[in-house]
Design goal:
Elements lengths: L1 H14 L10 H17 L5 H15 L4 H16 L10
Helix pairs in contact: 1-2, 1-3, 2-3, 2-4, 3-4
């Protein structure tokens, strides 16, 4: 699925923040992944429920002690991304 080829590397970057408790640009990476997921969902390439679960899993891998903050970042960025559907035509 093309949506996963776009989203999976971003989710990996979020999860890889687990090796550094701070200074890994976690918030920016999670925000980018969630915004991208929102755009993919808005364009019909990805189910929002699935996107949210993938984002939550990656965020919890990296920052399990800040679940409430992770949820706020995901909620805000998914909403922002959904306002800008991400069309994958022409992408390989």
């Amino acid at each position: 699925m093309r949506a996963h080829r776009v989203l999976d590397p971003l989710l990996l970057e979020v999860a890889e923040c687990a090796v550094l408790p701070e200074g890994a640009a976690f918030t920016e990476k999670l925000n980018k992944a969630a915004s991208t997921a929102g755009g993919l969902a808005a364009a019909g390439h990805l189910d929002e429920h699935t996107a949210r679960a993938l984002l939550r899993d990656a965020a919890e891998t990296a920052r399990p002690w800040q679940s409430a903050r992770n949820e706020r970042i995901i909620d805000d960025a998914l909403a922002a991304g959904s306002a800008r559907p991400l069309h994958l035509e022409g992408r390989s």
